[in-house]
Amino acid sequence: MTTVVKIGGAIIEDKAALDAFCRDFNLLRGRKLLVHGGGPMAGDLQRRLGMEPLKIEGRRVTDEDTLKVVTMVYAGWCNKLIVTTLQACGCNALGLAGCDASCVTAAKRPPRTLSDGSTVVDYGFVGDVQPSSIDAAFFRRLLEGGIVPVLCAINHDGRGQLLNTNADTVAGCLAAALGARLVCCFDRPGVLADPGDPGSVIPRLDIASYGALKAAGAVSDGMLPKLENAFAALRQGACEVWIKSSSGLLRQNGTQICL
What we know:
Layout: E1 3-7, H1 9-12, H2 15-27, E2 32-36, H3 39-48, E3 55-56, E4 59-60, H4 64-88, E5 93-96, E6 107-108, E7 112-113, E8 120-121, E9 127-128, H5 136-144, E10 148-152, E11 154-156, E12 162-164, H6 167-178, E13 181-186, E14 204-205, H7 207-216, H8 223-236, E15 240-245, E16 255-257
């Protein structure tokens, strides 16, 4: 089985957590790909440069200066730090952005109406991807050659414009395009019924249960796109989807997402 694993920036900026994750990822059986974010580090660099990060409904608004920052952080520091750490574990990793070999293309997101039904937001240089945006044959060739792709969420439109894409979306589309298993790892043990109680992991979450949690405010901010992308990945072709802690990568735990 092919597995697409996604990790967030909170893991990457914690050296001990990243080292442990990379050791486990190297032991993961079967063909595998890694997709990563880096939001906390991008936000920190923005603030150091006198910029104020702006997120709306869990997604980063990306003007021209923000695009430069996230490209430096995601495609530069984060990507090469992960590749270096994996290589030290014996994993033959190759760092990529979507513009490399045109492996992921994106369409610039048009202004979007928010969930309140009236507010319209222009997210700037943000790209939307679909499973058809993925060059699945390219990734299969890498996997067949024993190479482990490490992909950041900086993509392009094929006409010279870089675009920032939500990393959960990229991971979901990649899993769907490859018919793969998707495992989204972050700093919690799974989807929680009570956000303040790490012991309240929901073992299986379907669409109806998600709607109830969302209405109750139990899921919000960055968890919203994470879960929406998880359901979309299943609908579009991923064989199964899990959300769990990075420390539980090799264990049968976390939350399984179901339609």
